[in-house]
């Protein structure tokens, strides 16, 4: 029996997973539980989302996200939360800060560990220590060298000069008025973190937003609801005095769309001035217009997904590409924001992108006759299958997303049923005529919009912080001058004092240790009977005894094949190849080869189909390494046939090869702007065995894990693109050899 302090409502997510939503009659705390099958119990915040509205660039939501993990008043020990979590069969804790909420997460095996960690986690969120020493080490301080430092400060340094971040800041400046909650940088800007962000502001922000009436605890997994609510009630009782009598819901503001279109250029530091970025933004639908949201997802796929889409055809897969990648993104807010992003745009064509899009895509699709309704039908079916796949692959993620959105923007409880049943909304689109889709283009894409153009500038590299390498800091002229002024202002004694203060702060933060008794009390000492998925494995090698039906299926494969039979609506096939028989030259073609598998003509049922036709037919098949996925009902009987088509039926077309090689080379230039990608390549270059190969001047690394990367293969892909004009037969012969030899090494 559920306790008397809770009201309860229930909905089914896409007709499969039951969601129970409880609301406390005492504190207005919301608790949502999704009965997700499987051994894992996952929580968000780990228990919900805390709405964080701010009107400055101090980064208060982000700084608070970091500080709550440093200990609470009841558990004043740095790192104790993760120490306890690891004893409760948890993978640790995590969090993220978005523009409109902060979420904290936790995953445990089984529910016993979850029940143990939950009260400790809630205590950290609602009663953090927030001391001066914690603020100094985690947010901002000046170290013994007179330099600005701190975990949050260092983290935001990485974002200060990234092209995408600089463009995003400019977009917000243009779209939103000053002090608007959607305009500010919730992560914190460096000048604000240095000068205006302080501990008093963080404490005030915590009082204002971190209370029970502004919290939702979301749990996904097989868990006892009554025990969960009883566990939460103990914490609720303790913090009832902190709940404000009245609390105005954040993010209830109205947004005004731009009156007229505008273009803005943003100079961004980059050592590669050959490629930039273009972003076009429109205000879209309301966050509770769920049918329109579903329609836009399908519309975006129609315009940008697969080689046959208009944006791929007009911008990417052409002789002189206007972009290496085109994508849409929707930001949920009181009026949703639609972004169309063109990456890898040649610098001399940056100003042409918007006109090309408006003339070749928008203008054409204002006409009903332009729409390919057969392809649109395929995409609607694809979207529906994707929705079902999410219910199997990542139901907890979907539950968190829906419940956080409902907390932020759902004004009525009955809206939740529609929100979580997206599958039904998608299926309704199957019968929509061409006028419906052209109507969406007319309704939104011809409206006033904002264009942000990211222009790479090598000159700017000398004006911003470049990188932190090991213990030495390589800073550019502007930052160097600022630090020199700061050191001079502090004086030698002041700099020394700063170093001593931060050392004392670090010692203070780590001086307290949890007792052995506390840690022993929190450990899960006995494994429970976890909820598990039944899996029955059968193979076609000697000794296995499959059923007659399974034996017939396995007989179709001329190589060792294992089937893992489990309850699912989808079937996945992984083809593993032993590439040790390939030469280094052939292995360099592997990335291009696997990319071409799903962008090339193919022989299907004895007939040559164009790449466009193949894209239409196999709209739900895609690769991960070499990976096919089909729905169980219609695709399973033909799985072997599809495997045959994509391993032996591909016809390699020289123009497709050239387009694909150019695209991969262009993607490499974009990756160079991503510090994690570059760092990963640098690390791999030190870890893996090196070998010499004539295509590359530097030493090439003898590892597929390293070779299968656009950055490593950039020069090679550029060379192949040129060879497509000069030596087309040799290129095709090389790729066909890779195909033949790979089949010889299938495992």
What would the keywords be for this entry?
Cytochrome Bc1 Complex, Chain A, domain 1, alpha+beta, 747 residues, 5-stranded mixed β-sheet, 3 domains, 7-stranded mixed β-sheet, Peptidase_M16 domain-containing protein
Describe the structure.
There is one protein chain. This protein is of the alpha+beta class and 747 residues long. The chain folds into 3 domains: 237 residues, Metalloenzyme, LuxS/M16 peptidase-like (Cytochrome Bc1 Complex, Chain A, domain 1), CATH 3.30.830.10; 181 residues, Metalloenzyme, LuxS/M16 peptidase-like (Cytochrome Bc1 Complex, Chain A, domain 1); 177 residues, Cytochrome Bc1 Complex, Chain A, domain 1 (2-Layer Sandwich), CATH 3.30.830. The chain is 44% helix and 18% strand. The chain has 30 helices and 24 strands. The strands form 8 sheets. The chain has a 7-stranded mixed β-sheet, with helices on both faces. A 5-stranded mixed β-sheet has the order 10-14-11-13-12. Strand 1 and strand 2 form a beta hairpin. The radius of gyration is 28 Å and the shape is globular. It starts with 5 loop residues before the first strand and ends with a helix. GO terms for molecular function: metal ion binding.
What is this structure, in a nutshell?
Residues 197-363 form the Peptidase M16 C-terminal domain. This protein is α+β, with helices and mostly antiparallel strands. Helix content is 44%, strand content 18%.
């Amino acid at each position: 029996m559920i306790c008397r302090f809770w009201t309860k409502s229930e909905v089914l997510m896409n007709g499969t997973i039951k969601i129970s939503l409880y609301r406390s009659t005492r504190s207005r705390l919301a608790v949502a539980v999704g009965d997700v099958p499987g051994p894992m119990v996952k929580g968000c915040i780990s228990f919900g989302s805390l709405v964080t509205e701010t009107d400055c660039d101090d980064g208060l939501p982000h700084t608070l996200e970091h500080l709550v993990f440093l200990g609470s008043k009841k558990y004043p020990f740095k790192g104790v939360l993760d120490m306890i979590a690891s004893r409760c069969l948890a993978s640790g804790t995590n969090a993220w800060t978005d523009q409109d909420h902060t979420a904290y997460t936790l995953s445990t095996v089984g529910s016993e560990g979850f029940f143990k960690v939950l009260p400790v986690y809630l205590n950290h969120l609602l009663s953090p220590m927030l001391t001066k020493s914690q603020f100094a080490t985690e947010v901002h301080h000046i170290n013994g060298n007179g330099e600005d430092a701190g975990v949050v400060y260092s983290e935001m340094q990485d974002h200060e000069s990234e092209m995408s971040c600089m463009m995003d800041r400019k977009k917000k400046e243009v779209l939103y008025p000053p002090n608007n909650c959607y305009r500010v940088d919730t992560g914190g800007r460096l000048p604000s973190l240095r000068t205006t962000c302080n501990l008093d502001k963080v404490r005030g922000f915590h009082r204002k937003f971190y209370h029970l009436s502004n919290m939702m605890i979301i749990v996904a997994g097989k868990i006892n609801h009554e025990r969960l609510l009883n566990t939460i009630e103990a914490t609720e009782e303790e913090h009832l005095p902190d709940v404000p009598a009245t609390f105005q819901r954040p993010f209830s503001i109205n947004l005004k769309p731009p009156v007229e279109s505008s273009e803005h250029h943003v100079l961004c530091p980059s050592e590669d001035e050959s490629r930039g970025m273009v972003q076009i933004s429109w205000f879209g639908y309301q966050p509770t217009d769920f049918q329109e949201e579903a329609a836009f997802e399908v519309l975006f796929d129609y315009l940008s997904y697969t080689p046959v889409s208009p944006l791929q055809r007009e911008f990417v897969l052409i002789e002189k590409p206007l972009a290496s990648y085109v994508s849409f993104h929707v930001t949920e807010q009181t009026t949703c924001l639609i972004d169309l992003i063109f990456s890898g745009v040649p610098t001399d064509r940056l100003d042409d992108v918007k006109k090309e899009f408006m003339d070749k895509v928008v203008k054409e699709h204002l006409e009903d006759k332009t729409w390919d309704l057969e392809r649109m039908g395929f995409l609607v079916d694809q979207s529906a299958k994707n929705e079902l796949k999410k219910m199997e692959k990542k139901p907890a993620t979907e539950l968190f997303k829906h419940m956080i959105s409902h907390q932020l923007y759902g004004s009525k409880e009955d809206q939740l049923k529609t929100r979580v049943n997206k599958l039904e909304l998608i299926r309704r689109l199957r019968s929509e005529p061409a006028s419906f889709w052209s109507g969406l283009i007319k309704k939104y894409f011809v409206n006033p919009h904002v264009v942000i153009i990211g222009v790479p500038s090598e000159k700017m590299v000398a004006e911003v912080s470049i990188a932190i390498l090991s213990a030495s800091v390589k800073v550019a002229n502007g930052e160097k001058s600022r630090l020199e002024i700061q050191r001079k202002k502090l004086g030698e004694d002041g700099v020394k004092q700063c170093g001593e203060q931060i050392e004392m702060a670090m010692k203070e933060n780590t001086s307290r240790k949890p007792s052995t008794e506390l840690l022993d009390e929190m450990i899960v000492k006995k494994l429970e009977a976890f909820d598990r998925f039944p899996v029955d494995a059968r193979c076609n090698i000697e000794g296995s005894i499959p059923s007659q039906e399974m034996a017939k299926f396995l007989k179709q494969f001329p190589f060792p094949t294992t089937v893992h039979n489990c309850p699912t609506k989808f079937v996945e096939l992984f083809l593993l190849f032993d590439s040790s028989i390939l030469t280094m030259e052939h292995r360099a073609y592997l990335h291009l080869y696997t990319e071409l598998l799903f962008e090339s003509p193919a022989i299907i049922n004895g007939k040559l189909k164009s790449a466009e036709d193949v894209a239409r037919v196999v709209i739900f098949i895609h690769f991960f390494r070499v990976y096919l996925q089909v729905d169980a009902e219609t695709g399973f009987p033909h799985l072997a046939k599809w495997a045959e088509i994509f391993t032996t039926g591909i016809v390699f077309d020289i123009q497709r090869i050239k387009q694909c090689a150019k695209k991969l080379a262009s993607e490499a230039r974009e990756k160079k702007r991503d510090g994690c990608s570059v760092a990963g390549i640098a690390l791999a270059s030190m870890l893996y065995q090196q070998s010499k190969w004539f295509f590359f001047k530097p030493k090439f690394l003898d590892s597929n894990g390293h070779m299968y990367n656009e950055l490593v293969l950039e020069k090679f892909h550029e060379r192949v693109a040129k060879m497509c004009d000069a030596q087309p037969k040799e290129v095709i012969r090389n790729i066909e050899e890779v195909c033949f030899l790979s089949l010889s090494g299938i495992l």
